[in-house]
Amino acid sequence: MLTLSDDHREVQALAREFAAGEIAPRAAEWNATHHVPMDLLRRLGELGLLTPSVPEQYGGPGLDATSLCLVVEELARADAGTAVAVAVQNGLVAAPLLRAGTEAQKQEWLPHLATGQVFGCYALTEPDAGSDTAALRTRAVAADDGWRISGAKQWISNGGFAEVFVVFARTGGEGAKGVSAFITGPGPGLEVGPEIPKLGLHTSSTVGLSFDQLHVGPDAMLGAEGEGLKLALATLDGGRITVAAQACGIAQAALDLAVRYATDREAFGGPIARFQGVQFPVADVAAQLDAARLLTLHAAALRDAGKPHGAAGAKAKLFASSVAVKAADVAVQTLGGYGYSAEYDAERLYRDAKITELYEGTSQIQRIVIARDLFGDAAR
């Protein structure tokens, strides 16, 4: 990619080497046992790959959004679930803290997040409030010593091992303007639910959270009161770019597997790679993956330049996620019966790819974001 600097290529090479040597050989076993590799995630912190986007003054490497995308793609190429922890730590926890946090909040939380001493999660989605974020019911009631939070959250990535919680709760009336954001650690009144069985991402923790009068101090609010949903949506604008990068990593792994298998597998007197019925679907995926990667890097470059990137991130996620699903399907089809077997990675890639069309905004939501960017108020 001509848009990458030497520094970008160096970060990419480091992440690729680590993923190929330390993650890929263990990914199948970890997924089979639903193991979240915490030791490995902490090692990523030691290498500066866990939170590339945290500035040096807070203990991170101070890299840009493009670097984060490159890291996430390489990790997802080896194991999509492992990449989730990095994407959440950066895009959904560190990013809103950097955007809206006070200096004291940044000093308290960011150095520990950067090194992997603690991990964070983003508690927005609820059982009855997914795409309709303004309908959330979790409530924070003012008290003399801060706030008391009560309610329930669902589908919380990293939630099973998180010690930092970015929580969105209603402090005012109904609608978007009644929501505020908080950052807190665990405490009495916070219950972490069991791991939710999932189709894929078996190396990623996904749980529900229950709040029953959880006390947070008066300095726990993240940003201004009533501005929480704006912060949530701005955070998702950036987070969608890393989901697109994750999708590119899954697609690349699927493409690699299909090419390798078709080259080695012999039938009817030679490798099946000589048949156009095998070649053409793989060729289509290769072209589409290049386009998805360029969309992703374009959105990241806009973010790095401080320019609006909401629609660009939505386009990248919409397209890259569809490419990931198609690439995984092509890999399964190329491998035939072996693609349906857990003996090969194709079935895992097939299961992992689908989530990229769902979380941090479904594909339908991405189309709404893009349409509103095009049509403005006429689309509402």
Oligomer: single chain
| Low-pLDDT runs | none
CATH names the topology of the largest domain as Butyryl-CoA Dehydrogenase, subunit A, domain 3
Order of helices and strands: HHHHHEEEEEEEHEEHHHH
Number of helices: 10
Helix content: 40-55%
Walkthrough of the structure:
The protein has three domains: 6-118, Orthogonal Bundle (Butyryl-Coa Dehydrogenase, subunit A, domain 1), CATH 1.10.540.10; 121-226, Butyryl-CoA Dehydrogenase, subunit A, domain 2 (Beta Barrel), CATH 2.40.110; 230-379, Up-down Bundle (Butyryl-CoA Dehydrogenase, subunit A, domain 3). The chain is 52% helix and 14% strand. The chain has helices at residues 6-33, 38-47, 65-78, 80-100, 103-115, 228-264, 276-304, 310-335, 346-353, 363-375, and strands at residues 120-123, 139-143, 146-157, 164-170, 179-184, 190-192, 206-216, 266-267, 270-271. A four-stranded antiparallel sheet has the order 2-3-7-6, covered by helices on one side. The longest helix has 37 residues, at 228-264. It is globular, with a radius of gyration of 21 Å. The model has no long low-confidence stretch (mean pLDDT 96).
